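INTERNAL AUDIT FORM
Audit reference: QA-55
Scope: verify that the stored structure record matches its stored sequence.
Auditor: D.O.
Record contents follow.
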Amino acid sequence: MRKTSLSAVERQIIETMIIGEYGPATLFLRQIGVAQIDKRRLTGVGVFVDLSIPRSAPRVDAISAELSAGFRTSFSTPADVVGFTLFIRDGAVSFLEGYTYGDAVWPEEPLDEWLILDPVEAPHQKAK
């Protein structure tokens, strides 16, 4: 399977979450600069993005954490906000999950066509 690069919007989402939690000098940002996507899967109500970080990229003290943020969209309620959770495992970014709230369907169009890169307080319940 051919690996691909993060889109500019995916990179900005991840950077926003990382800087918000760890600040602009964190080594996690260097990881994002070399990150590749192993697989991207639409689920109907979200997207799963498996990330691959080269072994040569610096790790961050074996940190394991989840960072979450909500972002506005150009759609009307209930699809006006989507959430993202970034999973960090053993000091490396590893997985990005995007999800809708309620019964909203995840759009098939590229993120840059509908996502507004302005973090917001997101509802606390993910779609099931």
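Auditor finding: record pair retrieved intact. The CA atoms of residues 29 and 38 lie 19 Å apart.
Action required: none
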